[in-house]
Amino acid sequence: MLVSENRRNYEQKCHNENCCIADHVLQRFSARVPNYVGEDLSNFLVAFFGSPSISMTVGPGRAFFVPYHDSLLAFTYEETETEFVITTCLTINEINSLMPDAPPHAFNMHYGRAFTRPKIRHWMPAQYMAKFFKCWERKTALPTLKDKSALKYNWHWIGHWVRDNVRNKGHGPGSQYLFLDNVPGPCQVELLPGQPEPRINELEIYKRTHPEYDWDTHFAELDEKGTADS
Questions:
Q1: Whose CB has fewer CB within 10 Å in the chain, the N or C terminal residue?
Q2: Which long-range contacts does 223-230 make (Cβ < 8 Å, 24+ apart)?
Q3: What does the alpha-carbon distance between residue 161 and residue 224 come to, in Å, rounded to a whole number?
Q4: Residue 190: which H helix or E strand, with range?
C-alpha cells in the first residue's frame, strides 16, 4: 500500500478541476507496473503529472492516457462538478476496448485556479492519441526490471550523467525551458539554442486536412468545457 488515505489530493488541477487519487489507484500501480522497492510512489507521480494526457473511452467509462516508457498507462476517472476522481490504474493487459475521439480530448495539468484551454499548443494531441491507439493494438508491454545489484549507480556517476546528458542533447547558452502550451504547470518543453518555439493550431490543422467536418462546433464545445475560473 502506497498511502493509507482513501483519497489523496495532490493539489494539481486538470482543466480547473482538482485531481483526487483513490488509494486503490496507487495499489494497482504498485501491483501492475514493474517498480524497484521503494520507487513506486515517485514513479507514479512522474507518470501521472509528468506529461499531458489524452482522455479516451475505455469500456463503459473514460480514462486519462499517459506514455510510460514505450508503452502506456490509463487512469480511469469519474468527473464531478469540482474534481476528477481517479479510480484505478490500467496497463495494456487490462484494456479490452478503446475508443478514440475526434478531436482528441487533451488535458493540461496546471497550477492556480483559472484555466483557459490553449488554442496554440507545443504538441499535437492527435499524434499522441494515434500513438496510444497503435500501442494498444500492438499490445506493447511495459519493460521488465533489470537486476538492480548489477547496476553501478552512485551519486558521482549520476551527477556526471546529468551534465553529459544535457550537453549531448545540444543544450547550452540560449537554451530555454517553457511551460508546456504556456500553461503554468508541471509539464515543460525544452528548446535548444536557436530552436524556434513550436506553435501548433489544432483547429486550423483539422479544418485544412478535413474540411468536411464542422470543427468550429466541436472546438467550441471543448472550449466551453475547458475554460473556467473558480
A1: N
A2: 223/117, 225/15, 226/15, 226/115, 226/116, 226/117, 227/115, 227/116, 227/117, 228/15, 228/16, 228/114, 228/115, 229/16, 229/113, 229/114, 229/115, 230/16, 230/82, 230/113, 230/114
A3: 45
A4: strand 188-191
Element (H, E) at 216: helix 215-226
CA end-to-end span of the chain: 34
**Confidence (pLDDT) at 10:** 43
Q: 215-226 and 202-209 are packed helices; what angle lies between their axes, rounded to 10 degrees?
A: 160
Cis peptide before 103 (omega within 30 of 0): yes
Domain range summary for the chain, segments of one domain joined by +? 1-230
User: Cell numbers 509528468 correspond to what residue?
Assistant: 50
Phi-psi label, residue 46: left if phi above 0, alpha if psi -120 to 50, beta otherwise: alpha
Q: Is 131 helix (H, G, I), strand (E, B) or coil?
A: helix
C-alpha cell at 21: 487519487
Pairing of strands 83-90, 105-107: unpaired
